[in-house]
């Protein structure tokens, strides 16, 4: 069954103020940013002058930056005083996780967090907690959670806050260092940091017979391992998921596959997981859907799809 999920309105440090005309206007803590959003194929609700009045900085896509930079490269144009780096806290009224994230204006329009992912953080926290509690009762080892393509680590922090033994992997050393800062500021410690190609690592873990009770992955359309290994979603995703099936424990587990590129549908993601895991029917713990943001005028902006599965 496909569902649509949004971050909780009680997360006070983030808001999508408006969207439209290929842009989004967002508040991260005290600062308002405008950046390109190719999926916002409708009119803005606020007049252009209001965007200009509210915004601290606006991302201007660069021209002629070559193929890799075509979509995302550019520069931030400051309109009002703001720092290059600042912190926001993820916290809601619910029983979910709380952690701190450093934000920064990067050359690729990203700021260090994908706010639409908040429902995944809640799922990770809830399921990890259940596994940790069960392991405690049974005097079993602390559950291991693996986060691949882990970026600045919000999902890793959610799993760590719930008490898991967390492995965080990304191919870029700078983002792993960034995730480490987030861990420290959040008052957490003990995450295992790995700078490696995700596919290479997963295959090695499968060969060694190492398993994890929770696996999270959010792969991009294209990417590179630290030694030039090429990641191409269309070509490697199914192989990756078959490898994941080998390193996820057969029971007492959870999986999150998040996809935000190539226009994959939730059903496509679901079929990929079902086939990779050799599932005959859709089990009750399998769900898929879309992650979206709701702007303050009620316009829903879909940003990624997810497939989640848990087995007890
Ligand atoms: C958009 S991010 C994922 C976002 C993240 N899950 C979150 O919500 O914060 C994709 C990440 O994949 C990493 N990446 C790209 N190719 C990779 C590869 N071959 N192996 C490991 N990580 C890779 C990038 O460095 C980037 O941090």
Key structural traits:
312 residues; 5-stranded mixed beta sheet; 2 domains; binds S-adenosylmethionine; 8-stranded mixed beta sheet; Immunoglobulin-like; single chain; alpha/beta
Quick take:
The chain is an alpha/beta fold and 312 residues long.
Can you walk me through this structure?
The chain is of the alpha/beta class and 312 residues long. The protein folds into two domains: 2-104, Immunoglobulin-like (Sandwich), CATH 2.60.40.1180; 115-311, Rossmann fold (3-Layer(aba) Sandwich), CATH 3.40.50.150. The chain has seven helices and 17 strands. The chain has helices spanning 48-54, 118-137, 154-161, 173-185, 198-208, 233-247, 266-276; strands at residues 2-5, 14-20, 23-28, 31-36, 57-61, 74-78, 85-90, 99-104, 144-148, 165-170, 192-195, 214-217, 222-224, 230-232, 253-259, 286-294, 300-311. The strands form four sheets. The protein has an eight-stranded mixed beta sheet with strand order 1-16-17-15-12-9-10-11, with helices on both faces. A five-stranded mixed beta sheet has the order 2-3-4-5-6, with no helix packed on it. It has a two-stranded antiparallel ribbon with strand order 7-8. Helix 2 runs parallel beside helix 3, helix 5 packs parallel to helix 6 (233-247) and helix 6 (233-247) crosses helix 7 (266-276). The model is unreliable at 64-69 (pLDDT under 50). It binds S-adenosylmethionine (SAM). S-adenosylmethionine is lined by residues 114, 117, 149-152, 154-155, 170-172, 175, 197-198, 218, 220, 223-225, 229, 231.
């Amino acid at each position: 069954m496909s569902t649509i999920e949004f971050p909780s309105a009680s997360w006070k440090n983030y808001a999508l103020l408006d969207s439209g005309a290929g842009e989004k206007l967002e508040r991260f803590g005290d600062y308002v940013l405008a950046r390109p959003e190719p999926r916002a194929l409708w009119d803005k609700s606020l007049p252009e002058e209001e965007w200009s009045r509210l915004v601290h900085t606006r991302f201007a896509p660069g021209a002629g930056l070559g193929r890799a930079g075509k979509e995302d490269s550019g520069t931030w144009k400051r309109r009002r005083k703001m720092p290059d780096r600042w912190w926001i806290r993820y916290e809601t009224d619910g029983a979910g996780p709380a952690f701190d994230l450093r934000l920064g204006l990067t050359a690729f329009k990203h700021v260090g967090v994908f706010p639409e992912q908040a429902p995944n953080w809640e799922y990770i926290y809830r399921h990890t907690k259940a596994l940790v509690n069960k392991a405690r009762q049974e005097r079993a080892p602390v559950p291991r959670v693996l986060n691949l393509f882990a970026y600045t680590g919000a999902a890793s922090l959610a799993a760590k806050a719930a008490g898991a033994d967390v492995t965080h992997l990304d191919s870029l050393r700078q983002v792993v260092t960034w995730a480490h800062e987030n861990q420290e500021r959040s008052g957490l410690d003990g995450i295992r940091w790995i700078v490696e190609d995700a596919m290479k690592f997963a295959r090695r873990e499968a060969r060694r017979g190492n398993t994890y009770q929770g696996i999270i992955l959010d792969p991009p359309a294209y990417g590179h391992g630290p030694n030039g290994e090429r990641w191409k979603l269309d070509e490697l995703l199914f192989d990756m998921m078959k490898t994941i099936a080998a390193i996820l424990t057969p029971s007492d587990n959870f999986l999150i596959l998040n996809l935000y590129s190539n226009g994959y549908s939730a059903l496509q993601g679901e079929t990929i997981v079902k086939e990779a895991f050799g599932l005959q029917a859709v089990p009750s713990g399998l769900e898929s859907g879309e992650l979206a943001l709701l702007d303050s005028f009620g316009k829903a902006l879909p940003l990624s799809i997810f497939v989640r599965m848990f087995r007890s």
